[in-house]
Amino acid sequence: MEKFYTLIKKNHLLEKGSTIVVGVSGGPDSLALIHLLNKLKDKWELKLVVAHVDHMFRGEQSKEEMLFVLDYCKSLNIMCEAKQIDVTAYATQHQLSSQVASRECRYAFFKEVLDKYQSRYLALGHHGDDQVETILMRMVRGSTGEALAGIQIKRKFHNGYIIRPLLANTKEQILSYCLENYLVPRFDPSNDKTDYTRNRFRKYVLPFLKEENPLVHERFQHFSETFLEDESYLQVLTQQQMNTVLKRKEKSVVEIDTNLFLNLPLPLQRRGIQLILNYLYENIPASLSSIHIESLLALLTQNHPSGSLDFPGGLKVIKSYQNCLFTFEHDKVKEYRFELDIPSVVKLPNGFKITCDVMKIASPEFNGNASFLLNSKALVRPLIIRTREPGDKIKLKGMNGRKKVKDIFIDEKIPLHSRYSWPVVEDGNGNILWLPGLKKSTYEADSASEDEYVVLQYKEL
Asked: Are 342 and 358 in contact (CB under 8 A)?
């Protein structure tokens, strides 16, 4: 197994004197892995700790596998941490598939063992055939970015790294190694079932590829490594360029300038979208794929100024003119209706406030659309601040007739998501007096003729 040692040195997988936690199921891959690492133990001054999880899917059979691993570790004088976890109950409780639940439970246990022994390395037995299967599965599923590179030889995990020293070896080579070294691994019968996607690739696709090229695993590993190098370079470029198009970046909201974004090269656009999704999602949904990214690119390049998409997990993507908003908070914008006392200050859900004061003299600074003057004596109370309603119309200052508030939003190119929370100010007769920051009505007082004014101002919080 020279490839095993070559891969460790080439990729700097281990440091002398390290504590290595090794995931061992009892199957041929993990059994060969712990056997090989045990050979290195004295030379590299390694401390080995085996971690085994009984997922309790197969009753006594899986329990026997746990006892087998414990006995094998005892024979090698290696510490073994074994745990039985009712994965079926966990899957039911969290509404997960058995495969996803198994992975979550297993990796949570690995973290516990890493912490207990203050280890930075988790060694797993994935091999070259696993790599071929993984890359093909992800391509078919529509994965993007680094995911297309398949299984990484070394990647960050918890407080250290996951390492996979067997990726250069095939399953056949591992089985031969077990036979030559009198290892008697256990075999999980579920690996032969074609219910699982991976098993179908293993049974039907992989043999065909090996007939075409017996070293196909090496070609896929080369693809994985070079793809990751290219992807890392493009990711750096993407992060640099995305900083120039971001307008807003909050915990659950990202807004970009669409025009600036579309000026980026297409490869950076795709990766830019992926960066946004990675930032917003705590855990990327399994149903999210390259199809969603292509749909978004189509939305951003279409001639229509507005539109929206629903992404998995409640993420809403809203295009409006030259803005595109990614948000989980779209449905959280509720209708509001506040009564404005005189004087007072009302804080609005859109990050602005409206102040109300009484003054004797109107300053010239109140002439813009961010302020509104009312005749204190002629004012019909109460003053109401609310969200827009269907059919809202305003009698604009300096114009005949009334205009729909909806049309004003369109004319002013107000983004769709902002329209839901934009304030409308009306008097006690239901007349719309003012669209703060946008338009005034004919009901505004003449700043040169009144004795006392109620002054409304629209400001950021």
From this structure: yes
**Residue 18: predicted pLDDT:** 95
pLDDT by residue (tens digit) across 367-387? 789 999 998 888 899 999 999
Class of domain 337-460: alpha beta
- Residue 240 tokens read as 């640099």
Residue 251's pLDDT band, with cuts at 50, 70 and 90, is confident
Is CATH 3.90.320.10 the right assignment for the domain spanning 2-224? no
pLDDT > 90? residue 413: no
Task: Write the CB contacts of 32 (distance below 8 Å, at least 6 apart in sequence).
Answer: 1, 125, 166, 174, 177, 178, 181, 183, 185
Q: Which residues are annotated as a binding site?
A: 25-30
Residue 11: helix, strand or coil by DSSP?
Answer: coil
Average the pLDDT over 27-39 and give the result: 96
Question: How far apart, in whole angstroms, are the C-alpha atoms of residue 362 and residue 377?
Answer: 15
Phi first, then psi, for residue 193 (nearest 5°) are -75, 135
| Residue 159: how many other CB atoms lie within 10 Å | 11
Give the pLDDT of residue 131: 97
Distance of CA 8 to the CA centre of its chain: 32
Main-chain dihedrals φ then ψ at residue 31, nearest 5 degrees: -70, -40
- Residue 63: the pLDDT is 92
Task: Return d(Cα 383, Cα 340) in angstroms, integer.
Answer: 5
Architecture of domain 243-331: 2-Layer Sandwich (3.30)
Confidence label for 182 from pLDDT (cuts 50, 70 and 90): very high
The reported pTM is 0.70
Would you kindly state where each structural domain of the chain is located, as residue ranges?
Answer: 2-224, 243-331, 337-460
H or E segment to which residue 20 belongs: strand 19-23
Total residue count of the chain as it appears in this document: 461
Residue pair 324/260 in contact by the 8 Å Cβ criterion:
no
Interhelix angle for 216-242 vs 266-280, to 10°? Answer: 80
Q: Which residues are annotated as a binding site for ATP?
A: 25-30
For residue 325, give the DSSP letter.
E
Phi-psi region of 437 (alpha: psi -120 to 50; beta: other; left: phi over 0): left
